[in-house]
Every structure is written in C-alpha cells, then in structure tokens.
Specification:
Low-confidence stretches: 194-213
Order of helices and strands: EEEEEEEEEEEEEEEE
Number of domains: 1
Helix content: under 10%
Shape: elongated
Strand content: over 45%
Length: 213
C-alpha cells in the first residue's frame, strides 16, 4: 500500500486530501464451483486485488467557536481478478459531521455511508446510519440525548457477483432509536494543581514553577 497525503490550513478551513494505492497479489479468496450436481464453496489463489482511492477530509469553521462542519469523503475504484473472472467496483463512502456549540451545549448531526469492499466475488458494506445528538457539559458532568436513525433506514449487506449465484442481501431496519446518557468524569489519583520545584544552588534555595515540564 502506498499513500500520498497533503495537509492544508487556510483561514477557517483545514484538513487533508490524498491518494491511496493498494494491491494484494495472489490473494486467497472464496470460489463457487460445481461438483457433480452440487454448488460448493472452495478457495483459490486469485490473481489479486487492486484498488485506488481518492479522499478528502476537510474541517470548516463556519462561525468561529459556534458552528463547525467536518467530514471524510472517499471514492474508491477496485478490480478483483481470478482465473475465471474479473470484477470491478466503483463506489464512494464517508461521513459528514456538523456541530453547533454555545453556552455549554453542543448540538451535532452525523451521517455515515459505509465503505464498499470487493473481495473475491462479493461486495460487502457495513452500517449506513445517521445520528442527531444534543449534549450539555457542566463541570465534570455530561448530559446528552439523541436519536439514532431519525431519517431513512439502517442498512448493511452484501452483493454476490458470481455467475452461479447472483444475489444481494440487505439487513434494513426502519428504526428510530432515542437514547439518554449521563456521565461523570471521575479523576483518580493524585492531581498536581500547582507544581513547585525547589532547586538548590550553592547555599541558596530558589523556587521555580515546573508546570508544563
């Protein structure tokens, strides 16, 4: 795997973008084939997987100290080759986050589109979801409430590309899952609030602050 990444920082916008190339020669992958009147799954040394990804991860300060948006966007092109097939997959994935902060409150929204992975003769993906969350911080306490999947349907699944068994599987849930969370930050052990260090110089004792050392 070879990755090129470039970081940037301009007024109110920072982040990185780049390119990633990956290859897995002679990868051992599942293979469907007929033996008599039965379709069985075996394994083979394929001719390998190659993919090329382009990604962008920006953070935008829309209103300083109030409203911030960030995210990660990726477009990936994949090719999987074996002795009997060649499959291609082009797909985008990523996440987007936005946060509104004021008076100790943080209102945030998140959208996630899972990465599509080609391996052998199957494309699989994880969780596509979205979340809305409201959080309040007070001293060492944190109170939050939100909803998982307020929009759309939860989805994850896979797609078979085999000529012997073409199908697509989804686990979709039309759910609205509210939650409430209360947490407390408990500090354990000795806390050094003002570190003072005595330094002996000749016969004098000089006092100096050692905070941050």
């Amino acid at each position: 795997m070879l990755t090129f990444r470039y970081g940037f920082n301009v007024p109110r916008v920072s982040g990185s973008f780049g390119v990633r190339a990956f290859t897995s020669p002679n990868a051992i992958t599942p293979l469907l084939q007929w033996e008599g009147d039965k379709l069985i799954t075996t394994y083979e040394n394929s001719r390998g997987l190659q993919n090329l990804s382009f990604f962008l991860a920006p953070q935008i300060e829309i209103i300083p100290n109030w409203l911030v948006a960030s995210g990660y966007i990726q477009f990936r092109m994949e090719r999987m080759r074996s002795n009997g097939y060649t499959h291609h997959s082009n797909a985008w994935s990523g996440n987007a986050n936005i946060q509104l902060m004021h008076w100790g409150f943080v209102l945030s929204g998140q959208y996630v589109r899972a990465q599509r992975d080609l391996w052998g003769e199957k494309i699989s993906w994880g969780e596509n979801l979205n979340i809305i969350d409201l959080c309040y911080n007070w001293k060492s306490w944190q109170f939050s409430a939100g909803v998982i999947m307020p929009f759309g349907k939860y989805d994850q699944g896979s797609k078979s590309l085999s000529k012997w068994n073409r199908n697509e599987q989804h686990m979709r849930l039309d759910m609205r899952m509210p939650y409430v969370s209360i947490s407390y930050n408990l500090q354990w052990g000795r806390q050094k609030r003002g570190a003072q260090k005595l330094m002996e110089v000749d016969v004098k004792a000089d006092r100096s602050t050692a905070g941050g050392r």
